[in-house]
Specification:
This protein is an alpha+beta fold. It has 7 helices and 16 strands. The strands form 3 sheets. It has a 6-stranded antiparallel β-sheet with strand order 2-1-6-5-3-4. It has a 5-stranded mixed β-sheet with strand order 9-8-7-15-16. The longest helix is centred in the first third of the chain and has 15 residues. The protein binds 4'-deoxy-4'-aminopyridoxal-5'-phosphate (PMP). The site of 4'-deoxy-4'-aminopyridoxal-5'-phosphate has 14 residues, from helix 5 and strand 13.
């Protein structure tokens, strides 16, 4: 995809075509880094405080030095205003910086990037279950690191099947999450979602939905997707999205999903940093 506009990189605004990091950057060499995707609404990155907090959590777990909240806010503000965007996708990336050509610790300083891109059209509300598992006991479980090739692979697998998302079970066969989404099911009118111990990311949208709606956080078998009355996804770019199919099973977008989606839309209308 062609990227245009200006990229904020280590304090400078640089044309997208020439923005670059070193070939020795540990983010490139081994995927040693953290990232966040935010949506810019009316020129303001939505839920910035929560995204900065999660970025700091991921960096702490990777033992990569974290830029201050002030630097991250400045990067976001400057990249939004330089690109004069009202509605857009904003990606914050922090990597370990210069490092060895292997898995030894990077020597830094960290690389910090804030990039703006277009928001894609809403993805098709069809998903498939992935033939691979999430490792809920792995070192990177629940973290938003730049080691995302497992998700890239599974998403490609889904796209090849006409779906927009692949849903993982964890190693115990429990429902976990999608490649870039959290998953909720509705059974007999009750809304449930897997707990964080399932290995899923603590999605910001998930977190907000848990605060505004009655949701049970419970271990669920992956097979619940075959019997649930409704299934919906949450993510920064999808908000709350009801699904119309899981694998070969068609299902309706029902009243519980509509209620949660409406409550989430109301939350967004009432303030941009909940
Ligand atoms: N799980 C994974 C693996 C993700 O990458 C994302 C997207 N960041 C989510 C869930 C949803 O999180 P959020 O609501 O913060 O976008």
């Amino acid at each position: 995809m062609e990227q245009t506009g200006l990229i904020w990189i280590d304090g400078d605004l640089v044309p997208a075509e020439s923005a670059s990091v070193s070939v020795f950057d540990h983010g490139l060499v081994v995927g040693d880094g953290a990232f966040e995707t935010l949506v810019v609404i009316d020129g303001t990155p939505f839920a910035a405080t929560r995204h900065i907090r999660r970025l700091h959590t991921t960096l702490a777990a990777l033992a990569v030095e974290a830029p201050s909240e002030q630097v991250l806010r400045q990067a976001m503000e400057q990249v939004v205003s330089a690109n004069q965007v009202d509605r857009a996708r904003l990606r914050l990336t922090v990597t370990g910086g210069l490092g060895p050509l292997g898995s030894g610790a990077p020597t830094g300083p960290v690389s910090i990037i804030a990039a703006i891109g277009p928001l894609a059209e809403p993805p098709t509300p069809a998903v498939v279950t992935a033939p691979w598992t999430r490792n809920e006991g792995g070192a990177l479980a629940g973290l938003k690191t730049t080691s995302y090739a497992e998700n890239v692979r599974a998403l490609r697998w889904a796209k090849e099947r006409g779906a927009s998302e692949a849903i993982f079970a964890n190693t115990k066969g429990e429902l976990c999450e999608g490649t870039g989404t959290n998953v909720f099911v509705v059974v007999d009118g009750r809304v449930s979602t897997p707990p964080l111990r399932s290995g899923c990311l603590a999605g910001i949208t998930r977190e907000l939905v848990l605060e505004i709606a009655e949701v049970d956080e419970v271990d669920l078998p992956l097979d619940v997707l075959r019997t649930a009355d409704e299934v919906f996804l949450t993510s920064t770019t999808r908000d709350v999205q009801g699904l119309t199919s899981v694998d070969d099973r068609a299902l309706p977008v029902g009243p519980a999903t509509d209620r949660v989606a409406a409550a989430f839309a109301e939350l967004v209308r009432s303030g941009l940093d909940p």
